[in-house]
């Protein structure tokens, strides 16, 4: 089966190419889970998924952890329906958990400019966790405006707009099992 065959028929005509296959994602998440388990041996961690995009990443990561873990979610907005961050961050849903004294790993789907994540890191550090690390399935170093130490990185990708595995365009394509690029006419790129 080809990578495109794994994409639901509803979306197949919108896809330009598959950038990262579901098999590669699965292997990378398992590798990151093993590394994180080793780094946190003997300690419990709190995984904080940044909604909505990171929910699949965190679910799969949690299944690969061999240390105690709990989960929580934050929802922030800096994109709206656009394809790049506005840099203005709003917290739409805050944590339900007090993180003081806890080992926290922020789980992100993608780090682009880094502006949103930088805001989130500063906000969470002010809550006095024992430690705070970053995990991102995808990172676009060429777009970075803020230097962020992302400890656990799945894949570095070029400056292309991607969807799938939690990432969306206008709330569509999150359910794709891979990371793919859309045809430019789908999202209005010239």
Describe it for me?
With 190 residues, the protein is α/β, with parallel strands linked by helices. It has a single domain (22-160), classed as Rossmann fold (3-Layer(aba) Sandwich). The chain contains 5 helices and 9 strands; from the N terminus they run αβαβαβββαββββα. It has a 6-stranded mixed beta sheet with strand order 4-3-2-5-6-7, sandwiched between helices. Strands 1-9-8 form a 3-stranded antiparallel beta sheet. The two termini are 32 Å apart.
List the helices and strands and how they pair.
Blueprint: H1 9-12, E1 15-20, H2 22-39, E2 45-51, H3 55-64, E3 69-77, E4 90-93, E5 103-111, H4 115-125, E6 131-139, E7 152-156, E8 162-163, E9 179-182, H5 184-187
Parallel strand pairs: 2-3, 2-5, 5-6, 6-7
Antiparallel strand pairs: 1-9, 3-4, 8-9
């Amino acid at each position: 089966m080809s990578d495109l065959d794994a994409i639901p028929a509803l979306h197949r005509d919108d896809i330009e190419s598959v950038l990262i296959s579901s098999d590669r994602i699965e292997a990378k998440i398992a590798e990151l889970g093993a590394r994180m388990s080793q780094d946190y041996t003997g300690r419990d961690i709190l995984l904080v998924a940044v909604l909505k995009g990171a929910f699949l990443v965190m679910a799969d990561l949690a299944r690969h952890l061999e240390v105690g873990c709990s989960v929580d979610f934050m929802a922030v907005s800096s994109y709206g329906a656009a394809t790049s961050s506005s840099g203005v961050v709003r917290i739409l849903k805050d944590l339900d958990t007090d993180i003081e004294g806890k080992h926290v790993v922020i789980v992100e789907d993608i780090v682009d400019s880094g502006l949103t994540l930088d805001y989130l890191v500063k906000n969470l550090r002010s809550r006095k966790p024992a430690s705070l690390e970053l995990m991102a399935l995808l990172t676009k170093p060429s777009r970075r405006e803020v230097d962020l130490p992302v400890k656990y990185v799945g894949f570095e990708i070029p400056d292309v707009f991607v969807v799938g595995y939690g990432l969306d365009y206008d709330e569509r394509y999150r359910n794709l099992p891979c990371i793919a690029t859309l045809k430019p006419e789908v999202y209005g790129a010239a």
